[in-house]
Amino acid sequence: MKEKYIDVVSSELFNHPNVLETLEQLNFEIVYVVKEIKTKEDADFVFPKSKKYRPAFLFFDLSLYSVLKNKLPKGALILGQGKSLSSNTTILTNKSSIHLLNPISLETSFDEGLARIAKQNKKIILFNITDIWSNTHKTIKQMQFIIPILQKHKIEMRFITFAKKPANLIDPIVLQEFLKNFNLEKPLIKRILQEKI
Amino acid sequence: MKKKKLAVIRPTLRHKKRYIQLQLLTYPGVLDSRIAHGILVKALQKQSGVFSQTEANITIIDIDQKSKTILIRINKEYLEQFIASLFFAQPELGLLKVKDIKSTIKKVK
C-alpha cells in the first residue's frame, strides 16, 4: 500500500489548473489550505469542499486573530507568521492553539527559552522548506541551529511547502531523503511527513 | 591476428546500479537529455559534493517526451543522495515525482 502524506499549501495554489490531480499523484492524504489573513474580509474565504482539504489561516497580526477568533471554522489550523524574535515570542507565548510558521528570519530568532515556552504551550513549529531555494545558506544554517533545539525539547515540527503554484510542491519521497541532511532519523521524518497537525 | 576476447567483470565485482523513473509534472518545454543531465549533475554536486557526484555516475537512459518521464541509471550507493538532490533540481525542472526505483532496467520499463 502506498504511504500517505500531509502538506500545507497556500490557497493561491488552487487558482492553477489540474492542482487536484497533481496533489493526488503525490499521495497527499490531507492538505491544509492556508488563507492569509490581512483584512477582516479574508476570513470569509470559501475553502475547497472535500474531506481531504482542511482549512487553515495565517495571521500576520495577532490582534486580528482575537477579533476574528469566533468567526473561524471549528478545527481550523491557525498559524502565526514568524519573522522576528518579537513575533516568534508573541506567537509562542500565546495560550491559544496558534502555531508558528517559519521561525527563520534575517537573524537567528529562536533559542532554548523560546523552545521551553513552545513545549509548555504545546506549539507546533512549521518550516517552509522551499525557503531553501531562495536563500539557501541562511535558511539551512538557521534550520541546523533550530532543529536540534526542537528535538532536545521534544517539540512537534513539520516541514511544509506552502506552495503557491504546482511547481513549488515537493514529492514526499524526495523530501524524506532531503531531511536526512538535518540529522533526523528516518522513523521521525516519516512521522513528521505523515502525521496530522 | 585473432582478437582476444575481453574478460568479463564478475558480477560480484561490478558496481550495483539502480534505475529511477522520474516524471516531470510541471516542466513546460521540450525535454532535452543534455540539459536534464546537466541540471541533475549540478543538483547532486550541490547536495553531496563533486566527488560523490563523479562516483554516482548519473546516466540518462531514456526520455519519453509524451509522458515527460526520464529513466536514469545511478550507482546504488548514491541512490539516497541522488533522490535528496532532486530537491535542488526542482527550481529548474519543475515538480519532480519519483515514479519507480528498480534494480534492473527490465523491471522499470
Explain what you see.
The complex is a heterodimer of chains A (197) and B (109). In chain A, strand 5 (98-101), helix 4 and strand 6 form a beta-alpha-beta unit. In chain A, 37% of the residues are buried. Chain A is 35% helix and 21% strand. Chain A contains 8 helices and 7 strands; from the N terminus they run E-H-E-E-H-E-H-E-H-E-H-H-E-H-H. Chain A has a 7-stranded parallel beta sheet with strand order 1-2-3-4-5-6-7, with helices on both faces. Chain A is α/β, with parallel strands linked by helices and 197 residues long. Chain A has one domain (5-194): Metal-dependent hydrolases (TIM Barrel, Alpha-Beta Barrel). Chain B is of the alpha+beta class. Chain B has one domain: Alpha-Beta Plaits, CATH 3.30.70. Chain B contains 4 helices and 4 strands; from the N terminus they run E-H-H-E-E-H-E-H. The longest helix of chain B has 16 residues, at 33-48. Chain B is globular, with a radius of gyration of 16 Å. At the A-B interface, helix 7 of A face helix 3 and strand 4 of B.
Write the layout of secondary structure elements.
The complex is a heterodimer of chains A (197) and B (109).
Chain A: E1 5-10, H1 19-25, E2 28-37, E3 53-59, H2 62-68, E4 77-81, H3 85-93, E5 98-101, H4 112-120, E6 124-128, H5 131-134, H6 136-152, E7 156-160, H7 172-178, H8 186-194
Parallel strand pairs in A: 1-2, 2-3, 3-4, 4-5, 5-6, 6-7
Chain B: E1 17-24, H1 33-48, H2 50-56, E2 59-64, E3 69-75, H3 79-93, E4 96-102, H4 105-108
Antiparallel strand pairs in B: 1-3, 1-4, 2-3
Helix pairs in contact in B: 1-2, 1-3
Beginning-to-end CA distance, first to last residue of chain B? 41 Å
Q: Structural class of the secondary elements of chain A? A: alpha/beta
Number of strands of chain A: 7
Task: Kindly state the percentage of residues in helix of chain A.
Answer: 25-40%
Percent range for β-strand residues of chain A? 15-25%
**What portion of the residues of chain B fall into strands of 2 or more residues?**
25-35%
Task: Spell the H/E element sequence of chain B.
Answer: EHHEEHEH
Shape verdict of chain B? globular
CATH architecture of chain A: Alpha-Beta Barrel
CATH superfamily of chain B: Ribonuclease P, Pop5 subunit
Overall structural class of chain B, as computed from helix and strand content, comes to alpha+beta
Report the largest inter-chain contact: A-B, 18 and 16 residues
The end-to-end span of chain A amounts to 23 Å
How many H/I helical runs of chain A? 8
Kindly state the mean pLDDT of chain A as a whole number?
Answer: 92
Main beta-sheet strand count, sense and barrel state of chain A: 7 strands, parallel
> How do the strands line up in the largest sheet of chain A?
1-2-3-4-5-6-7
